[in-house]
Amino acid sequence: MNPNDLKLVVKEKYGQIAQQSKLQNEASCCGATGCCSTVDYTIFSESYDKLEGYNPDADLGLGCGIPTQFAGIKKGDHVLDLGSGAGNDCFVARSIVGETGKVTGLDFTEAMLAKAHENAIKLGFNNVEFVKGDIEEMPLPDNAFDVIVSNCVLNLVPDKNKAFAQMLRVLKPEGHFCVSDVVIKGNMPEKLRKDAEMYAGCVSGAIDISEYLEIIEKQGFKNITIHKQKDITIPDNILANYLTDAEIESFQNGETGIFSITVSGYKH
């Protein structure tokens, strides 16, 4: 699939997801006839329930970590959330930056932007805005943000080099990012990868962890740190279709597999 086609698929799929609740997303990816109803998009997600600023209406269960926990956001910061969806991480970030800070969410899916705007209005925030745009070509000024966060989105971006180059551009000097994302470890057979995508949609576009970190470094970020790594359990009945017993053991021991990571890096 070429990059433009992939973006169209992502836009359509997440447009449909935006119409559903977190509960519905736990049962299917979009609820449309013939859609991948076996996919659980919340399999990666973590509980936000006890976080200040959490708004259930903005949580569609689409994350794979809680990047704001490790982002070092301070009062008065201007934070950018890439692939902001219904606004979940934006509203948590807003509780940290306070009245003197600002939060900008960037998304290219109309339905998600509409839902985020609606949530912001209900909450009465005047320092949270949502902007339509592509992460590979952000319609945002240079050196504008103190911190960038993103949650289970960059793996869906076809050109990750462009994405991290844009992140470097829009960050202020000494600014930093903290993102949660899905990566692969080891050699995963293509057929298994496709089945894993049917089981947990966020696997789409995920690359090897070493390649992921190389891209971040290549684009000029320093002090790259992995704060958290969690393996994603794929059921044995799916693994058994493609792997030998020894390969399944390797998969289950964490040498090969699908992981969510939360990683940060600094602009200098």
Helix percentage: 25-40%
Q: What is the CATH homology-level superfamily?
A: Vaccinia Virus protein VP39
- Widest β-sheet, arrangement of strands: 3-2-1-4-5-7-6
Name the structural class: alpha/beta
The amount of beta strand, in percent, is: 15-25%
Number of domains: 1
CATH fold category name: Rossmann fold
The gross shape turns out to be globular
SS summary, helix count: 9
Total count of strands: 7
Strand-and-helix sequence, N→C?
HHEHEHEEHEHHEHHE
Oligomer: single chain
Q: Profile the largest sheet.
A: 7 strands, mixed
CATH architecture: 3-Layer(aba) Sandwich
What is the CATH top level name? Alpha Beta
Mean pLDDT: 87
Uncertain stretches of 5 or more adjacent residues = 28-37
Radius of gyration: 18 Å
Could you tell me how far the N terminus lies from the C terminus, measured between alpha carbons in angstroms?
Answer: 36 Å
Description of the molecule:
This protein has 268 residues and is of the alpha/beta class. It has a single domain (3-266), classed as Rossmann fold (3-Layer(aba) Sandwich). Helices cover 32% and strands 22% of the residues. It has nine helices and seven strands. The protein has a seven-stranded mixed β-sheet with strand order 3-2-1-4-5-7-6, with helices on both faces. Helix 4 (110-123) links the parallel strand 2 and strand 3 (128-132). Residues 28-37 have low confidence and may be disordered.
